[in-house]
Amino acid sequence: MDPLPTPQTQPGRDGLAALLARPGTALVGLDFDGTLAPIVADPEQARAHPEAVPALVALAPKVASVAVITGRPAGVAVRYGGFAGVPGLDHLTVLGHYGAERWDAVTGTVTAPAPHPGVAAVRAELPGVLDRAGAWTGTWIEEKGRAVAVHTRRAADPEAAFEALRGPLADLATRHGLIVEPGRLVLELRPPGMDKGMALTEYARRIDAGSVLYAGDDLGDLPAFAAVEKLRSDGVPGLLVCSGSTEVTELAERADVVVDGPAGVVHLLRTLADQLD
Question: Is there a contact between 94 and 239 (Cβ–Cβ < 8 Å)?
């Protein structure tokens, strides 16, 4: 049996100890892209790591809940993750669109409120904005239902395209009551009041979590890291895990444990499940 990594902070060590001591009250929160699924040039081709579902099947029955928290629509994350209809995943929930949508494995259904009208308006104007910014070639618009994202990973100069679009997309979002969330060569336009920290906090309270583990890889995961830190201050032990990359370093600087991308996350989840046998 492989040993678990030793968290580099005392709060992290306390969080791991609490999870191991009382797994039945633990919430395991996981980002999807870059954490359970490798980052790819075309977001529609993203799929969970081949060992992700087996690791979740091993872990989920031993904890209170596993929650995949993502900016993607919940149904898309379920499909790309291969989560539907899998025996042993009854304790799995997918919080899509930063918690605006909720899918649970028991019912297999998605619940969600009406979409923000600004998203449709932004979607209609976006091609013209990209064209005027001179950043259309190689960019990729991802339709996310309750949000829309512009990826620059396939542009000739991805970083330059990213920077060229930040201002125009911020202006576009503001005109329609949205905000811009930057990520790994992606700018997402979405309604305010939606982030992974809020989703994680609300769900942890809903299930009365006794401890929380959260794993993420990108700037959009920083609110979830902050939520775990706030839960710690309120007496709920927590463990912060970074799915490491060379593109984003902010999470690694705040994490208790850094692992090597989705493969490292999957290995950590499987090792944790083995420890709970």
Answer: no
